[in-house]
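Supplementary notes (optional reading)

For those who missed the lab, this is the record we used. Protein: Peroxisomal membrane protein PEX16. Length: 264 residues.
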Amino acid sequence: QSLPQQKLLTWLSVLECVEVFAEMGTARVWGEMGRWTIIVLIQLAKAILRLLLLLWYKAGIQTSPPIVPLNREQQQPLHAQDMEDNSSGKDQTYVGRRSSRVVRSLQSTPSLQSRHWGSPQQREESQSRRAEEMNQPPTPLGLQETIAESIYITRPLLHLLSLGVWGQRSWKPWLLSAVLDISSLSLLSDLKDLNRRERAELRRRTILLLYYLLRSPFYDRYSEGRILLLLRLLADYVPGVGFVTRPLMDYLPAWQKIYFYNWG
C-alpha cells in the first residue's frame, strides 16, 4: 500500500473508533441539532474516504475495521535463543524413536513469557500462512462489483437523507436501507476467488442484516416486546443467565437510541 492510502485507512479507522463518543458528546453539549450535524459530517467523511479508496486506489471490498488489529501473540517473533540456535545449526526438535513424536529439545526452550505449546515448525508455518493471507492483494472488482460496493458505501448517506425527508418514524428510510444492503450483497455474491479477509467481510455484512430487527421503526412496533419477553424468560428460568440478560434489558433502550450503534 502506498503512503497516501495508508493515511486514508488510518483516518478512516480513527473515525470509526470515535464516532459513538462524538455522537454522545455532541448530544450532551449541543443537543439534538448538534448530534445530527456531527452524524452527517462523520458519515460524509467516511463515505468520501471509502470512495477514494475504492475508485482511486482500487482497494476492492473494504473491511471493517479498515486496519485489522494486530494479533500480538500470532505476530510475536521467534525468541532470540531460537534465532541463535537456528544460526548455529542446533536442532530445535527431537523425534522419538518409537513414537515418532516431535518435541522441542531442552536447549531451544524459550523463556516462559514467549513460550508456545507447539513445535517450531507449526509456529513458523502458522506465521508464514497468516503473513501471506494479510499480504494478499485485493480482488479486482468489475463494474457490477464496483457499483455494489459504492451502494454499500453511500447507503448511510442515503439513509440520513431519507430520515430528513420522511422523518424518523417513517418506514421508508428503514426499507430503503434494507433494499440497498441486500442489493449490494446480491451483486457481490457472484464474485469468485475472494481472499480470506474479503470472505469474512461479506459474512459480517450478511450477519449484520439481523440489525434490522433492532432498528426503528421495526424495533418499536414488533421486536421490542418479543426481545424483552425472551430475555426476561431466560433470566427467570435459566440459572446464571440473569447476570447477562438483566443488564442487557436495561441497556437496550439506551443502545437503541444511539445512531452509530444501530446504523453506523
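If you only remember one thing from this example: The two ends are 26 Å apart (CA to CA).
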